[in-house]
Amino acid sequence: MKPQEMKEHTKGIFHLSLTPFDKNGNLDIPALKQSIRMVTENPLLENEDVVFLALGTTGEFYAMSEEENKKVIDVVTQEVNGKFPVMIGTGRAGTRNTIEISKYAQEAGADGLLVIPPYYTMPTTDGVIRHFESVAESVDIGITIYNNPAASKLWLPAPVIKRLSKVDNIIGLKENTNNPMAFLGMLQTIDEKDMAVFAGLGHFMYQFMCFHGCKGFVTEMLNYAPHLAVDLYHAGLEKDAAKVREVADKMNLFWNWVFRLAAKHSLIPSAVHPMNQLPNDMPYYQAANKAAAQLCGMPSGAARAPMENIPEEEIPELRQILKEMGCNVVA
Fold first, then answer.
1. Of the listed 146, 206, 233, 284, which one is catalytic?
2. Which of 174, 215, 250, 290 is catalytic?
3. Residue 133 needs a FRET pair 20 to 30 A away by CA distance; which of 89, 102, 178, 317 works?
4. What pTM does this model have?
């Protein structure tokens, strides 16, 4: 897709694709293909606004070699095969590395790229802007900025995002702030003709921002609770506050379980808010979604180290929660 075309498609349900690993911890290509087909062939998603998003945090790109990442890029683009737009996470800590994998994704057939700000290091404002401009100059497809302070240590404020939105092929913003006022300020600052803004913290922020012009939300739930993802998106489009709350509360049955699990097994707080002792989902984020998908018949495998997998004694409660959410539990 041309960047402007991709911007028009940057809306709706952003499907977070899981990356399956087999019992030996190796990349499981047959399982990956099957998991993609289970989403692309789901009749519930016919004529829906869906964007495939692979190799972000959910896809565990950080735990794979670049050769493995390239294999996933090839499989995702080939298996989706134009049915939905495909956005590939290509952000790396260094500019050259980001450009290299971004070019590969474009050549493989990706419609767009998801690029996080440089992480590990702490560049200047001009350094960050040059980073994104350099990546944009290296490809001809649309780039979405992944504004995720939990992963990069940086949160790019609205004036910086507005400046980057004027670059021709920077067309989207996956906004991961957990501050509703900051999110609203971004929506009010960015011209929607330049950039499509969607909720990187999924339903947690979409349930508020759908009333203020947010284009959609990322979600893992097309892997195991697609009915809830579709219902929430349409409730947001219709500005139906009661329905938004109802569906979000059902989604929270799963996430509250993840929060309880993390609080039970981990005492390490987030560095983003080190004094915040409230539980977060990160220690079991990938594993919980993989376990839920597996229970609903999607091959997903285990999470790669250093992330831990769900203790076996916790699975019965997850199974019951998925049933309460209306999921098709088969295992």
1. 146
2. 174
3. 178
4. 0.95
